[in-house]
Every structure is written in structure tokens, then in C-alpha cells.
Please model this.
Amino acid sequence: FSIEVDDVEDAYSQAQAEELEVALTLRSEEWGQKHFCVKDPNGLHLDVVEAIEATEEYQEGYTQE
Model:
């Protein structure tokens, strides 16, 4: 599951403070996401996402000629 937030860095800090199991550390992806994943006790992964600007290189693959 994914959930979009306004401030993923704050959400990551909160997850760490609550000692949640972080399955994927905070990172920025070239396609326009900054995110991390936590795992609940049942093994369900939650992807916490903030939309960011995609890299220029990534966007070049989607420009019209």
C-alpha cells in the first residue's frame, strides 16, 4: 500500500521516533518520488510517498518531439 504525504522527511522522522520497522530507507527516485517503506507486524509494507520533481534525464524520455 502507498500513502502520499506533504512532508515525507517529517513522516520518516516520526517513524524512526516510534521505532517502526523501516523496510526501505528514505530515498529520492528519478521518476519523481521521495519515499520510504515501513513493515507492520503482519508483514504488510506501507510505502510513504511525497511527490517531487522528476529528474531532467527521466523527463527527457517523456518529451514530445
In short: The longest strand covers residues 21-29. Helices lie at 8-17, 56-60. Strands lie at 2-4, 21-29, 33-39, 45-51.
